[in-house]
Design goal:
The protein has about 675 residues and is mainly beta. The chain is built from seven helices and 46 strands. The chain has a six-stranded mixed sheet with strand order 24-23-22-21-20-25, with no helix packed on it. Strands 42-41-40-45-36-46 form a six-stranded antiparallel sheet, with no helix packed on it. A five-stranded antiparallel sheet has the order 1-11-10-9-2, with no helix packed on it. InterPro entries: VWF/SSPO/ZAN-like_Cys-rich_dom (IPR014853), ZP-C (IPR055355), ZP-C_dom (IPR042235), ZP-N (IPR055356), ZP_chr (IPR048290), ZP_dom (IPR001507).
């Protein structure tokens, strides 16, 4: 698609032109050009403001010309003009095109149209020159400067990058003198000009990019370690042809198509550093390890690599961060690496400074929420928790995540690096059953302890008025070990609960065959079903079409699903009938009292109550005297740990028969359904 660019100029009037439109004015006027609007630097204009003022003739786009405020205008001396004409030429002649080429040799594109605002002795031409997006309007091979028209009709300029020079043929190449050395170490960037920049946040920064290699980018990824307010170079990422190569701690190399998160800056800090570090210094470090860069053998390199930026970076970092994890050697090693690129071997620098030439934590692999550091100064290394990650646990004085309760299992996960911070060896921990130990995720170093219905691991089940509690404990071995000597014994309790039924009374009306109540307790839940049948095998459910006669035996099953029968049982405490939906309505007739059959009713039988996750009872069908024939049955149940004696103790002896209607007075057509 073609985009118009406007070329403004002031020329002597052309003669012999063929005009498509013309108009003459004697005073300041607003000319409507909406039939042929002008696009100028991405902005479209549909009006021209033309006038003669202060000895000038002016043509403006955004209002009449003002000497005080100016504007987007063409201004020329009026030379005594008193009137002007406005002309549009939509089909420029060959003479017009030749005239433009003669006066504007750099314009080689097609001349689409032009406006002419003509005063006596002077004319203002507004040319529409058409360029395709991406067209290079002008360029200078000697300087590699170019002017290009973009998609929005705006001119873009381009030239060589900060680390490049022009070869004189329009091609930019890396300047080896400028791009000799850029050092990134700790939180500090020392660019190729020797300027320093300190990274204050935890982001990925562009270290190097160049227009001549648009698909190549070097990123530095900065992360926290022991403190939230100091970031360190954690890894380096190379972007090549849309692929990302991550160079990480321990010599790990990963390849992916995803760029690092938290991109904070797009410029190349190695070639264009502008910030400076604080002038604050700690004399302890300024006079010792940092200033070693001015002494032999480093001094032999001082003429090629200025040590001051490295000393400044070293001092600033050690002012805020402890000299651990080889940090006091890190800046010395970075300077030695830069010197080696200039053929300075710096023999003996490691022995003089006590630093190792080997890569720090070369053989240690840490997870994403960890970093590799020293257990003791100059000692072995281990994986430490990053401070931001650890803070959410430290705020609650916790060593891990909350308990996860599933349908028939429970687990708790502890953070490996937090355990090491406390001097706790995870292999010395176990549950109540010493054979149940934690499982370590080799990638995250998280340690998970769990129990389930098939292996309780010594889980203790207790109850209170509203909950059934499954509790276990993570503890250390009874025997001492070198790793945990000198530390308190570990006791970490974790538990899952099952609440008693949220609705203590489960009510059904004799209208359908069964009722199902879904009871949720946190993340552990179970289902309670109450079903009425007419046969011993509980296969013939009472349905809407079932005819039930008075004194016919009704069998009711109370069954649960989702409970561990080896741990918990269901106890039916009481069941009673009313002639109204309310559980508290009267009259009331008791069928089960305190888990036992009502001794006053010899037709009631209770089976397997408190023995498992289901129990049964039966009774002979009856009707309340003077009622409509509707009977509402209510039952109250609770859960009981099986390790307790949950079977109700029922009194022995004869039971009196209930006072029922002595005479059969017709059939009762009934069905059963839950109503709650």
């Amino acid at each position: 698609m073609l985009r118009p660019l406007l070329c403004l100029c002031a020329l002597i009037a052309l003669t012999g032109a063929q005009w498509s439109y013309q108009q003459t004015f004697n005073e300041s006027s607003v000319v409507n050009i909406s039939s042929c609007p002008i696009t100028y630097y991405g902005q479209q204009y549909e009006k021209l403001y033309v006038n003669i003022t202060s000895g000038n003739v002016t043509a403006c786009f955004n209002g009449f010309f003002s000497p005080e405020t100016g504007g987007d205008c063409v201004v020329e001396h009026s030379r005594g003009a008193q009137q002007f004409g406005f002309f549009i030429n939509l089909q420029p002649s060959t003479a017009d095109v030749d005239y433009v080429r003669q006066n504007f040799p750099t314009i080689q594109n097609r001349l689409e149209r032009y406006f002419l605002i003509q005063f006596p002795h002077v004319s203002v031409f507004l040319y529409h020159i058409m360029y395709r997006p991406g067209t290079v309007i002008s360029s200078d091979p000697q300087t590699c400067f170019s002017l290009t028209c973009n998609e929005t009709a705006v001119l873009n300029t381009s030239s060589c990058g900060a680390l490049e020079r022009c070869q004189g043929n329009g091609i930019c190449t890396l300047d080896t003198m400028l791009a000799s050395t850029c050092t990134v170490t700790g939180p500090t960037i020392i660019d190729v000009h020797g300027q320093i920049n300190s990274i204050q946040d935890r982001c990925a920064y562009s270290l190097f990019s160049t227009p001549s290699l648009p698909d190549f980018l070097v990123l530095g990824n900065f992360r926290d370690r022991r403190r939230k307010d100091v970031s360190f170079l954690d890894s380096v990422t190379l972007r090549v042809d849309g692929h990302y190569i991550h160079l990480e701690q321990g010599g790990r190399v990963q390849v992916s198509d995803l760029q690092p998160q938290f991109m904070c800056q797009s410029g190349g800090l190695c070639g264009n550093s502008s910030s400076s570090l604080s002038d604050l210094r700690l004399s302890e470090y300024s006079s010792t390890s940092c200033n070693l860069l001015k002494e032999a053998p480093f001094s032999s390199c001082n003429t090629d690599i200025d040590p001051e930026p490295y000393i400044t970076a070293c001092t600033d970092t050690l002012c805020k961060y402890p000299a651990v994890d080889g940090l006091n050697c890190q800046f010395l090693k970075a300077y030695a690496r830069a010197c080696s690129l200039h053929n300075h071997a710096l023999d003996g620098w490691t022995s003089k400074t006590g630093c190792s030439s080997e890569a720090f934590c070369q053989d240690r692999t840490c997870s994403d929420h960890e970093f590799c550091g020293e257990k003791t100064v100059g000692g072995d290394t281990r994986c430490f928790c990053r401070d931001i990650f650890a803070s959410k646990y430290q705020a609650n004085n916790s060593l891990g995540d909350p308990t996860v309760c599933m349908q028939d299992s429970a687990s708790v996960t502890l953070v490996g690096c937090l355990l090491e911070d406390k001097g706790i060896n995870y292999s010395a921990l176990h549950l109540n059953d010493p054979t149940c130990r934690g499982q370590v995720d080799e990638l995250t170093h998280m340690v998970t302890f769990s129990f389930n219905s098939s292996n309780s691991c010594g889980t203790v089940v207790t109850t209170n008025n509203s909950e059934l509690i499954y509790k276990n404990t993570i503890m250390t071995q009874n025997s001492s070990s070198d790793i945990i000597n000198g530390h308190d014994q570990v006791y970490i309790d974790f538990s899952c609960v099952q609440t008693q039924a949220d609705i203590k009374t489960a009510t059904f009306r004799i209208r359908d065959s069964s009722m199902i109540q879904h009871i949720t307790s946190g993340v552990w839940d179970y289902t309670l079903t109450m079903c009425a049948t007419t046969d011993v095998g509980h296969t013939q459910a009472v349905e809407s079409s079932t005819e039930v006669q008075l004194i016919q035996k009704i069998r009711v099953e109370l069954k649960t699903d989702g409970l561990d029968g080896d741990v918990v049982v269901v106890v039916t405490d009481s069941c009673w009938a009313t002639d109204q939906p309310s559980t508290n309505s009267t009259p009331r007739y008791d069928l089960i009292i305190n888990g036992c059959a009502n001794p006053a009713d010899q037709t009631v039988q209770v089976k397997e109550n408190g023995l498992g996750t289901s129990n049964y009872f039966s009774f002979s069908m009856f009707q309340f005297t003077g009622s409509s024939g509707e009977v509402y049955l209510h039952c109250e149940l609770h859960l009981c740990p099986k390790q307790n004696n949950c079977v109700p103790t029922c009194p022995a002896g004869a039971r009196r028969r209930r006072s029922a209607r002595s005479k059969y007075e017709g059939e009762a057509f009934i069905s059963m359904a839950w109503t709650h």
